[in-house]
Amino acid sequence: MLKKSRHYLLFIIGLFISFYLEGALMHAFPYLLAGKFPMVPYLTVTWLIYTILFSDRKQNIHIYWWTFGIGLLYDSYYIGVLGIYTFIFPIVVLVTKLILEYVDENIYSSIMIYLIDIIIVLVLGYTGGRMSHLVYFSGIHFFAYAFGPTLLLNLVIFLVLYFPISLLFDKYRK
Amino acid sequence: MHKFFSSRNLVIFVVGLVASVGLIGGSAAVRNNRAMPIFIQEFGNDVVGIGDRVIAVPANGIDKVFGSVDNLINTYSENNYLKSKVCRLQSTEARNEALTNENKDLKEQLHLNETLTGYTAINASVLARTPSNWQQQIVINKGALAGIEKNMSVIVDKGVIGRIVEVNKTNSKVELITDSGDSASHFAVQVKGNKTMVNGLISGYNNANNELEMGNLTAKDKIKRGAKVTTNGLGGVIPKGLFIGTVTGVSSAADGTSEQINIKPAADTRNIDVVTVIGKK
């Protein structure tokens, strides 16, 4: 019972830290992240995927509710229009869980799943921004300048943090 | 495959999609038309903002260390440059004071209390930048309690960087001038031509070479490179005379029928730490 609550707590603390770090990193490294090639370190999404990959599957950590909640905060605090990431984050969790039912979890399949998830976030995020008339980038520009670099940056972040985070989850496992 | 397409999941998915589209439409309308977001959203933003202050302290500390090292390296060349500026500064200051006094006297004589150049200023620091690659927005640490209102313009020492789009009690969102989305505010600006003053709107932003585009020009005139572009104070709550940037050239607009003036923004919109929010008096 104690172990369960520790994994639960780890997930939630990490969720909020990654949420805040996303905005702080954007602010701290503006030339790299908001320059000619706009990139976003999707730490919140990355943390969600780590949690699904590494946490004990038998434990119920109410991941859909927390994902929905953090998506709502994300939209409200960062974007200013509700309903974009509120919807995308749970879809990412759904897709990740769905694929994991059919493939074995190892680092290669994890990278594949992660790339699929980031592409979903990028494409649906842009579509949502377009719908709410917030986008300043044309679609062609977005795919030429933002899509590739963002994918690459997130892949690097995912690989660098993969083993440390898996060890962190192992530490709080039975 | 049967799991995903089970009717229960499908129903949740469709309901979620519909709710999401509804939320986007509703909150986009609120963002454009109302001064403040709905109460619950405003409250949530304030609570999240408090957490961000806790995170911002160590983050800004790290930022400052990098900044200090950078400053140390630049000190020599900067010092030389500043020395040359200081000589001129005092004379400009004296002249400025004389002009301000004269201006005040003249205004009194004319019983002219409100002109377009008068404004109020509120200082604020930046909490976070929106993690999005299709939107340019920052969150600042002052809100309605400090007297900030929607559509006020936001400047740094060098020039305009944007306008307020959302006001919460203790924080607010700034849409940068480089964000030229459909619902973005198009700043009304002017630049001095050879014969007349040319008015226009900031109509776009070229991300590849970091240049603003000024379109909807009111007059056809020759405009020199390096001419200064300022706000013209027409419409909205943006005062007159805020510096936008300098002209780098004139080209034909994307539609091919009209001209646009390309402007190099005076303020570095990619690196913002402290801002001043400006409202008409």
Radius of gyration of chain B: 23 Å
Number of helices of chain A: 7
Strand content of chain A: under 5%
Structural class of chain A, please? mainly alpha
Mind telling me which CATH architecture of the largest domain in chain B this is? Answer: Beta Barrel
Total domain modules of chain B:
2
How many domains of chain A? 1
Order of helices and strands of chain A: HHHHHHH
Number of strands of chain A: 0
Helix content of chain B: 25-40%
Radius of gyration of chain A: 16 Å
Low-confidence stretches of chain A: none
> Regarding quaternary structure, how should these chains be classified?
heterodimer
The major beta sheet of chain B can be summarized as: 6 strands, antiparallel, barrel
Silhouette of chain B: globular
Fraction of residues of chain A in helices?
over 70%
Instruction: Return the string of H and E elements of chain B.
Output: HHEEEEEEEEEEEE
Lateral arrangement of strands in the main beta sheet of chain B:
1-2-5-4-3-12
Number of strands of chain B: 12
Fill in the CATH topology of the largest domain in chain B. Answer: Thrombin, subunit H
The rough form of chain A would be described as: globular
Describe what this molecule looks like in 3D.
The complex is a heterodimer of chains A (174) and B (281). Chain A is mostly helical and 174 residues long. Chain A has one domain (2-171). Chain A contains seven helices and no strands. Chain B is an alpha+beta fold. Chain B folds into two domains: 37-113, no CATH class; 116-281, Thrombin, subunit H. The chains are: A mainly alpha (174), B alpha+beta (281). At the A-B interface, helix 1, helix 4, helix 5, helix 6 and helix 7 of A face helix 1, helix 2, strand 1 and strand 2 of B.
